[in-house]
Amino acid sequence: MKTAGNRSIHEEVRERRSRIADMKKKTEMTVLDSRMLAPEIWSMELAYTPEDAPDDVKPGQFCGLYPQGGDMLLMRPISICGWNPARRALRFVYRVAGRGTRSFTTLRQGDRLQMLGILGNGYDMDLLAGRHVLLLGGGIGIPPMLGLAQALRSAAERGADTKVTAVLGYRDRALFLKEEMEACADAVCVATEDGSIGTKGNVLDAVREQGIRADVICACGPLPMLRAVKQYADREKIPAFLSLEERMACGVGVCLGCVAKTTKKDEHSQVNNARVCVEGPVFAAEDVEL
User: Fold this and answer.
1) Separation CA 225–CA 206 (nearest Å)
2) Which of 37, 62, 233, 258 has the smallest C-beta neighbourhood within 10 Å, fewest atoms?
3) To the nearest whole percent, how much of the chain has pLDDT over 90?
């Protein structure tokens, strides 16, 4: 896909990212809401104080949340599901995967939580506006897709002729966030691994079954899904942007624990690697090897 001046959409993404300011600071947040959406899936809303609130949050960015209890020192990276500037609040939807994330479920309204953020590069809204965007979310990759859909709907209400189709992949009939997605996307399709609802299989099975075509793809989910999306986008000649999920320790690019293999050499290190927490988590599909 070409943009004004005959430049590719991927070239513009890389240029815009060079101008994004970091907000990598540790902040004490206040819990506004914490509730279970489905078995082992929780939603939590955290508010800034007025002086700490960011000017902008891009869909696809993430934060590091620090577990309750002094024996767990490392932050847990969790994608931002939504940003409410009026409430100065971030929403996170996460899966309980261990002691750290389980400690978040004990939090109640008014409790305090340490957070590192805002981290990473998100989706470029200017480049998606005015196009038919296909959102592919698998499992706990669905929450950032909801945040992106809400941002695209807001852009459309301001005049951008944007269409959003979302395909959501679940294990079974526990369809968390589906109704919220239906409120902001033009169309929503579902795939379940057990075939209990929608297409039996994965998100690409649903795309093929429904004959869905779009101008650009944005995806977040487990690595096998992202690998398949990259192959599909390459075969169909559709620009795609992938949000990678990697284990992280620091979240600021120091520990090199979340390195992904890239198709091009880094200008400084001259190796085919990129730090997901700094250069990502959102990458053009053509820029990463999966």
Assistant:
1) 13
2) 37
3) 71
For residue 165, the surrounding DSSP H or E stretch is: strand 163-170
Which pLDDT tens digit goes with each residue over 93-131?
A: 999 999 999 999 999 999 999 999 899 999 999 899 899
Residue type, 31: V
- Return mean pLDDT, the chain: 90
CA–CA gap between residue 52 and residue 88 (Å, rounded)? 9
Domains and CATH numbers, the chain: 25-119 (2.40.30.10), 122-287 (3.40.50.80)
| Residue 121: DSSP 8-state | B
Distance CA 1, CA 13 (A): 12
Tell me what pLDDT residue 243 has. Answer: 97
Buried b (16+ CB within 10 A) or exposed e, 239-256: bbbbbbbeebbbbbbeee
Residue with tokens 């696809």: 60
Token duo for residue 247 = 């284990």
- Please answer whether residues 41 and 176 qualify as being in contact, where contact means their C-beta atoms are separated by less than 8 angstroms: yes
- CB proximity list for 37: less than 8 A, separation 6 or greater: 43, 93, 176, 177
Return the closest-CA partner of residue 47 out of 81, 96, 85, 102: 85
Of residues 163, 119, 170, the one with CA closest to residue 142: 170
Single-letter code of the amino acid located at 73 = L
pLDDT of 19 higher than 50: no
